[in-house]
Amino acid sequence: MFTIFGTTALIISYFPLYYKELGFSSTQVGYLYAVGPLISMFSNMIWSYASDKYRTIKKIMMLLIGGQLTLLLFLTQANSFGAVFMIISLFYFFYYPVYPLADTMAIQTAKRYNRSFTVIRVFGSIGFALFALGIGYVISLAGANRAVVIGIAIGTVTLILSLLLRDGVVKRSGGMELSGLVKMLRSKEIFWFFICVFALALGHRMNEAFLTLTMAQLGADEGLIGWSLMLSAVSEIPIFFLLSKYGDKIKELPLLAFASLMYAVRFVLMGIVSDPMSVLAVQALHSVTFGVFYVTAVRYISRLVPTDYQATGMALFTVFWSSASGLISGTFGGGLFESAGRVTFYYLAAALAGLAAAGFMWRHIFHRD
């Protein structure tokens, strides 16, 4: 989890700067950001369904990490937008499915050793924080063109560590059947949850894709951008520990509504700020936005989805949280950021988060067992 989320810090936060180094426009950066979610809409389901069917996470994760490394090697030789677009498209086929599989393995490992999933997942936050800061300083010294080489180094370490993983053995209640998957997808409770997740994810991915460019626009250097990313990741850690101890005592839907409302506040403040130091302060809200939302959402979806479909359920969550939302925010976000400006961009994100908060509370108040 530590090294996997180190890769996340690089791909999400510093690859936009790498694309800028190659001379790509904000709109082109948006397209490069959007192609990943487009690819992952089916790659997540393919790999996670295979994991559930063949009952192995370890082997598939190793295959995915190996694929990432191969594509990064090709990326070092690409300079034109067309070549980068093609390689990145293939890269994302192997990149996105790692995360729902890693979360599923963490859930299984927690059950095996009678530990909390949250305590395992917190190492992802620690990895993201330390890598975000470290990569920021390396890039400030060596240049954004070193981003791909850094990715190869992190991926190599991750592949070596994956050899030590242990597959979870889950007893099937009745075997994995496609009809059971269809029945799960027809659940009104799951459908409503995914719609609310999608609305919130649109705002979250808009901020994620253009945070580093926003800070650069406000005059921040790579070192300060690294501190901003580290601060947001570190802020998750105490929240994760609190939720691991007390989270089960609070119903999921009100917690999800609270997190969505705090997202709206965070995005409004991002529209107001006028200097990079203010962005650092706003980033502290990552704790009560993503920190609360993610742990609670995983707990909620784990309760709703049968054991036989655990990896597939997490993949569906990832499709709505990362893939579909990232596709739309990346495709239209770049143009909106350029044409309407940062303020309008973040106010729209805030409105989407407010809509999600209303949806979660509506379901909580009017839900009938």
TrEMBL record:
Official protein name in the record: MFS transporter
SUPFAM superfamilies reported in the protein's UniProt record: MFS general substrate transporter (SSF103473)
Subcellular location: Cell inner membrane
Organism expressing this protein natively: Paenibacillus lemnae
Keyword set, alphabetical order: Cell inner membrane, Cell membrane, Membrane, Transmembrane, Transmembrane helix, Transport
A Pfam family per the record: MFS_1_like
One Gene Ontology cellular component annotation held by this UniProt entry: plasma membrane
Presence of keyword Signal: no
